Amino acid sequence: MPSTSASPPSPSHSSPLPLPPPQRIPLLPNVLLPHLSLTIPHDIHISPSTALITSITPSPNPTTQTPSLCLPSLCHPHIHLDKAHLYSHPSFAHLVPDSGSFPEALALTSRAKALFTPADLLARGNWLLHESLCAGVTHLRAFVEADTTAGVKGIEAGLELRRLWRGRCEVQVCVFAQEAVFSGGEDGEGRANREVVERALGMQGVEAVGSTPYVEADEGRAKRNVEWVVELAVSHGFHLDLHLDYHLDAGREPLVWFVLEMLRSSRWVERNAGKTVCLGHCTRLTLFGGEEWQRLRKEVEGLPVYFVGLPTSDLFMMGRPEGGGEERDRVRGTLQVPSMVQKLGLKAVLGVNNVGNAFTPWGSADPLSLAALGVGIYQAGTERDAEVLYECVSTRAKEAIGLGESTAQIKTGDKADLVVFGKREGIVTSLYRWRRTVKEIVYDAGRERTVIKAGFWIPLE
User: Fold this and answer.
1) 307 near 340, Cβ under 8 Å?
2) Quick check: helix, strand or coil at residue 311?
3) pTM higher than 0.90, yes or no?
4) Residue 7 pLDDT class (50, 70, 90 cuts)
5) What angle do CA 209, 278, 420 make, to 5 degrees?
């Protein structure tokens, strides 16, 4: 942590987590702010009462150490809390993929959910939140499933984790219908799943609702799923998050057109002001031509719709050769997020999605690993590309889930949610490679990060 006069911890930050309590810092000295200067260090002054940045001034007494780079903190706009790190827990280690297909992942996850206990949900959730915080994540949308298999115990665990990590990481709980809610007979499993979801939405602390229309038996039921969940979000005043169009079949009509139609017919903007709509995966959109992209651009105009690319999951699941097909048939489908932002003016961000389960057995909880992966996936190697990729796991991501503004420049009046990249003072640095620009962070961020949440330094161990 850069030297500063830290105040004693606030009583509101007391918790049973095995971590030292956060400490208020009125001053964050000697940091580089790339939009101001890459050579002159600055001091960030923070109001202890509001946690807002009151002023940013050139450092009057720069230290001899190379100043550390300071950027807005990171965000998970889309991450599954209840099924994280299944393969690191002995109760689920046997549920590993064989074929790696999406139906298999659904089946394995359903078997895992039947084994969930409050203790393991809290343990794995704590692993995910701690690793995320160590990466610099201070805000996240956490999907937690509600259905006849899981009941609401996952929601209860998510809300408890939200309480435990308050002051360190802002956890937005999203009640999520992963299973079909209109298939399986009108009075069968689908209806029962709907009832569990609707009961979970009444639990205090829930802020979003989501579903997966593509798991329904046919297009008609998928559309009923959309109608149902849109109305739930509006009637409860919640954010909406749909996992949508998760396929690469050019012969199937994308459901996104129906979703946009429903948002307008439900008068989303008027009836649910200030709440956002996230559309995750949407891999079918990668088959769009120019006319379809222009149509999409026009149809989202005026709606708070954000597209969420999930490349670690998409690359693992999408484009598998069918029936032992040729390797040349292995299409890699994932949203081209930087182009959507820069060329089309669409709102798009990046999310980790899953960690350590059958949907995504690989990868970490570090959003900057996505940004680095994006350089290669999207062939996005310019300096501006790097800035956009960082924003897509930081400020743009916060805006997508309704927890911030899409500005990458730290300025007076901002909430002091920050991450500082670099070694702490007093540590020998002659062999340490300092990162002084956003593109260096995106290309290879390193592990040394200091997290500031709402004006508090957050010890990570």
Assistant:
1) yes
2) helix
3) yes
4) low
5) 105
